[in-house]
Amino acid sequence: YGKNTIKFLRLHREGKKHFVKEVEVCTHLRLSSAQEYLNGNNSSVIPTDTIKNIVLLLAKEKGIPTLEQFATDICEHFMISFCQVVYVKTYIQEVPWQRLHENGVPHVHSFICVPDGIRFCEAEQCRNGPLVVFAGIKDLKLMKTTQSGFEGFFRNEHTTLPERNDRILCGELFCKWSYGECRNFDFDCIWNKIRECILEAFAGPADCGEYSPSYQKTVNSIQMLILSQVPQVQVIDTVLNNTFYNVVDMKNLGVTNDKEVLVPVETPYGSCACTLGRK
């Protein structure tokens, strides 16, 4: 049991310069007995209101240097403070605030919300067990308008999809990875590096791109590049929800539409998923 959707903004000041972290936290506990479920005995139950207040107090006292460190602080607090707690799991996601720039100069206290992917992390720990940390990015919308196709797939009497060697590749990406034994990692640096790998593998070189024969191959290329570039990552789960676009037939309007006006296919949409890890 636990407390979901604890939302707050943590403001940190260094002179005139301000720093913000707006997050949503979910924290769940498992206790050493189930007497509250079986017998209605609540003597060991930590109220969810107490859980919420502890999270807010930890944010005040320790700050949020990184999402991963804050999740670790929450897990450690419940393990140390409550002997009846045998398992803690904390999920944190961040609102994507970025500092405003005016003529290339960073503003000291103004920010803009840029929806270019939501950063999140998870930390979980069993009593007498290791701390396990995951991190990820979700709701990252990506598109390339060429260098994508889908050909040579299995066909039977139920297949109506035409083969294409030039199509728009568009999707919303979810990517979650696990770290090995957690040491003093620079979690911010690693997360930014992984995001760069995702964009590089999806798009290819800036002047020409790279051909994608399928959504599945693109997902695998993303995972392979991350594993080759970021040694701290052990396993990656990736889901790519696809958005398809159809070319509008404008013959009745007396014009030829050479893939210049397209409409999205809202539902159903495709999805592919893959888990890849080191041996």
UniProtKB/TrEMBL annotation:
It is an enzyme of class 1 (oxidoreductase). It catalyses: urate + O2 + H2O = 5-hydroxyisourate + H2O2. The keyword Oxidoreductase applies. Gene3D superfamilies: Urate Oxidase (3.10.270.10). Pfam families: Uricase. One of its GO terms (cellular component) is peroxisome. One of its GO terms (molecular function) is urate oxidase activity. O2 binds at T48, N242. It comes from the Eukaryota. Pathway: Purine metabolism; urate degradation; (S)-allantoin from urate: step 1/3. It is found in: Peroxisome. Catalyzes the oxidation of uric acid to 5-hydroxyisourate, which is further processed to form (S)-allantoin. This is Uricase. It comes from Oreotrochilus melanogaster. The lineage of its organism: Eukaryota, Metazoa, Chordata, Craniata, Vertebrata.
